[in-house]
Hints:
By secondary structure, this protein is α+β, with helices and mostly antiparallel strands. 64% of the residues lie in helices and 7% in strands. The relative contact order is 0.12.
Amino acid sequence: xxxxxxxxxxxxxxxxxxxxxxxxxxxxxxxxxxxxxxxxxxxxxxxxxxxxxxxxxxxxxxxxxxxxxxxxxxxxxxxxxxxxxxxxxxxxxxxxxxxxxxxxxxxxxxxxxxxxxxxxxxxxxxxxxxxxxxxxxxxxxxxxxxxxxxxxxxxxxxxxxxxxxxxxxxxxxxxxxxxxxxxxxxxxxxxxxxxxxxxxxxxxxxxxxxxxxxxxxxxxxxxxxxxxxxxxxxxxxxxxxxxxxxxxxxxxxxxxxxxxxxxxxxxxxxxxxxxxxxxxxxxxxxxxxxxxxxxxxxxxxxxxxxxxxxxxxxxxxxxxxxxxxxxxxxxxxxxxxxxxxxxxxxxxxxxxxxxxxxxxxxxxxxxxxxxxxxxxxxxxxxxxxxxxxxxxxxxxxxxxxxxxxxxxxxxxxxxxxxxxxxxxxxxxxxxxxxxxxxxxxxxxxxxxxxxxxxxxxxxxxxxxxxxxxxxxxxxxxxxxxxxxxxxxxxxxxxxxxxxxxxxxxxxxxxxxxxxxxxxxxxxxxxxxxxxxxxxxxxxxxxxxxxxxxxxxxxxxxxxxxxxxxxxxxxxxxxxxxxxxxxxxxxxxxxxxxxxxxxxxxxxxxxxxxxxxxxxxxxxxxxxxxxxxxxxxxxxxxxxxxxxxxxxxxxxxxxxxxxxxxxxxxxxxxxxxxxxxxxxxxx
Length: 682
């Protein structure tokens, strides 16, 4: 069977496989969940509180707060409208708890009432619009806002509405434009895009299987990162394969032979890259945060599926298309590949003349950017997680302005039935609590709602939560304190723990993979250190811009860990492509010439790959949630920094300074010209 026949057979098999996987990929939404308990560690107070709340009559409930404001003071008509709304909502959603009438603020300018909605009404995003419609009719000049934990959760979930389709379309358009600019061909761009689309189907189906079989946590953030990874990394692999394929087409008459030679050269580096990123992602399994632990296998599945598709289906498509796919710049055998001086030849020559100065200048730039880490790195509050402020957040500010004793987010205290009265008294006596009320009672546990005086997610509110968590279990063993602010506190604590555990593990794994690939110790350690330096610089510059340009109030709790993981794993990728080619060239021409030749040959394609990956991650900046915008910006900026400065200048400069010691403890065979010269001298 000829090579083209095998390529056609392989294409047919992939079409059949992808057709079979498509229904499973389409069902990925069915296994996604953005509940707080899907994010939190299993042993966290807030997780235990949510699990105990589910045992109460009606199961878990969402707390909504409706607040009314009139600058000149509320009127009798305003009070009548608020009372009617309160009665209608209680009748609609079956809540019998709370005050008999809406509460008035001390300044006489606001009214408010709480509504508890149990889980029988479904997810908050399913009924929030109907809930808000019930209070839409009111006297002119009166502002009515629905806020509280339930509304905040609904607005958070609503921000993800349509996000998958938007992200897929924008990412595909970005990749298409970059491929058109890179190849300057009306045909070639379509082949990588088709292959990456197939990889995305396979990855989504694989993640669906992981969620169904192994109960892996999949949320909208993880699904968004999966799409970006597959398109970004898949396009990078395509660029590297096409670059090697084009080289071989200038030396071989047979298209199939050229592709086999290209794959023999490119696949080891691509496989090492995929292994580095996949193993780095799997380090997230050591995280306490459920969403982080779930992202590990989700991302690794995406990388593995992308690798399989791009080294099988993509080459088959290129072979079947033949040389004409490169039109109008069709490579022919025996054509001169181009011996003129290129941009990357000139860059290499400049570095070679003064490698120490190039290295010092690069480090100085990176250190300067890293000074941004002195800025605001405090964790984001729940209210600051939106790029555009929703009604739930503005309503919370209105509530805090007129009801300072209810400024905090309601805490959920779950306590054994026998201790309910004592725990309620203790909660009311705490100086940080403005109001406390007993709620439902279940077979073993009762709930108490406590309203902190301090604003939501403030240090004072967190101090109140920690004080209650220390005092109440001592009074009544088994008592736990949960709720949205308590969850945010648990997330911050767990995220800090995960950084201390996962980051060293990622560094160890990446260093080992590089050591095995390069069969050296010095080079892997040096490469990892340069990428870590690049990460610190990218994060520092991003913190500065977040604070002074974007106006973000802090950093998402998971940003540092995710940014580190992606920038180290993906940044090492480009060093793998550069240094593995340098080792190959060094075995023929020596370390110095090998590094310069590698930079000249790979400079263009690796830079293109970096731009593609940065552009795909930058798509996340267009989304309405700060967490996604931040991770998209940091990774995009970091990849460009690593591609244009670290990999292009710093790494070659350090390699030229170290010379053959860069491969320690291995020793490369002496280049053929040197051995011949020594024989002549003898």
